[in-house]
Design goal:
By secondary structure, this protein is an alpha/beta fold. It has 13 helices and 15 strands. Bound molecules: zinc ion (ZN).
Amino acid sequence: MVRNRKFWLAMFVLVILVVVASCESPGGTSHAGIDLMSPSSHVETPQEYETNDYETSGYEAGEYYAEPEIGLPPDPGKLDLQSDVVFVAGRYAGFLTWGYFHHSSVERPVAFIESSVFDTNTGDALDIYDIIDYEMLDKVLSLLEMAILAHVPEATPYLNMIEASWLTHLVIDYNGLRVLLAPDIAPWDLGFVYVELPYEDLDEAFLLGVELGLREPPHRPMVALTFDDGPTIYTDMILDLLEAAGGRATFCVLGYRIQRHPDTLIRAVELGSEIIGHSWDHSDFTRLNANAISSQITRTSDAIEAVIGFAPPLMHRAPFGLANDRVFDVSQDLGYSLLHWSVDPQDWRNRCPDWIYYYIMKRVVDGSIILLHDIHTTTAEAMIQVIPRLIEEGFQLVTASELIEYHYGEIEPGLRYQGFRNAPW
Ligand code: ZN
C-alpha cells in the first residue's frame, strides 16, 4: 500500500507541476519555446518581466508606474517546465520533469529536475541499480559518454568527470534508456542534455531486458527430476512440493496404474510437469519381441492421452533402463526416444530420506537427470529437502524434455538420453 501511495503521489506532484508551469505562462507563448541547450540566452531580466506582464494583461506600461504607492508586487518568479511520461510494456512508468526557475533575485535561472521510474506490477519505485547492472557500470558510462559527445560535442572537456551520478535521472523508453543530465549533475554550462542509450548497446547491462522481452532469460542450471513406476498416493505429495517451489518434473508411469490416479496426472500436467510411459506392466523389454515392445509403448501412451487429453511426448523410459538393439529399433520405428538418467540414488533400495538427499546434492550438476521412484514414502520425504535445496542452489527444475531440447535441440527418435553431460546413444 505504502509503495502504491508513493506512485500516485509522484503522479499527483507531476500533474501539479505541469499545471503550475502552464499557469505561469499566460498566453502560453512567452515561455513555451525555451531552448534547453542554451538556457543563458533566455535568462529574463526583471525589466522584461514587467513589460511582458503589462502586455499580456492589457495595461499601458505608464499606468503601472503612475501609481507607485501601490508598490511593486514581489516577483513571484517564473517556472518553465517540460515533462516526459513514458509507460513501457504495460508495466514500467517513467516520469521526468525538468526546467528552470527564473527569478529577479538570482542572476541565472535555477535548474529544476525530478525523475522517477515505477514498476506498476509491484508498485516499487526503481532506482538506478534496479535498472542497470552495477558490475557493468563502466560500459554504461562509456555509452553515455558517446551519446553525449554525439549530441553535444562541446561537452568534451567535462567528460573526464563522468560518474554514476550522471545516470540519476532516467526513464525506460521504448528503444533505450533516456538519460537527462541536469546542470546540477553534469557541471557544465550547456543546460539540460537529454540522450538515449539504446537497449541493443546496453545489452546485459540493462537488467530489465528480459522482462521487456528484449533478451532471452539467462540460462540457469537445469535439473530434471524423474519419477518412475507411479502414479501412486505419493505422487501428490511430490506435486505439492513442486508446486510450492515453482518446479516441474517428469513422471514415467506404468500403463496399468494410470486409471487408478487420473486426477493426479491431470494435476501434474496442469503444474507444467510431463507424463511419459514406462511400459504397461514393467516387463523387461530386452526379453520381449518387437510387437510386444511396440505394444507396451503405444498402449501406455494411449492410456496417458486418454486421461490428460493430449498425446504425451514421444519419449519412453524402458523398465530397469534396459535396452538392446531391438528396443532401439522399435523405438525409432515408432518415433520414440528413450529416457535414461545420470544420477541414481537407488531410492528403491536406500529407504532413507537423508541418504537420498545427500546422494543427490553431492552429484547433481547442470543437466542432470535424476532417477527416482514415486512409489516409496521415503522418496517423497527426501523431496521435502531435495526440491527446495535445488532451487536454493540456483537450479531450475524442468521436465526431461525441456532439458534435452535446451541442450540438444530436437529430441531424436531411437536415441537414449541420459543427461546433458553425457552424449545420447
Ligand atoms: Zn521402473
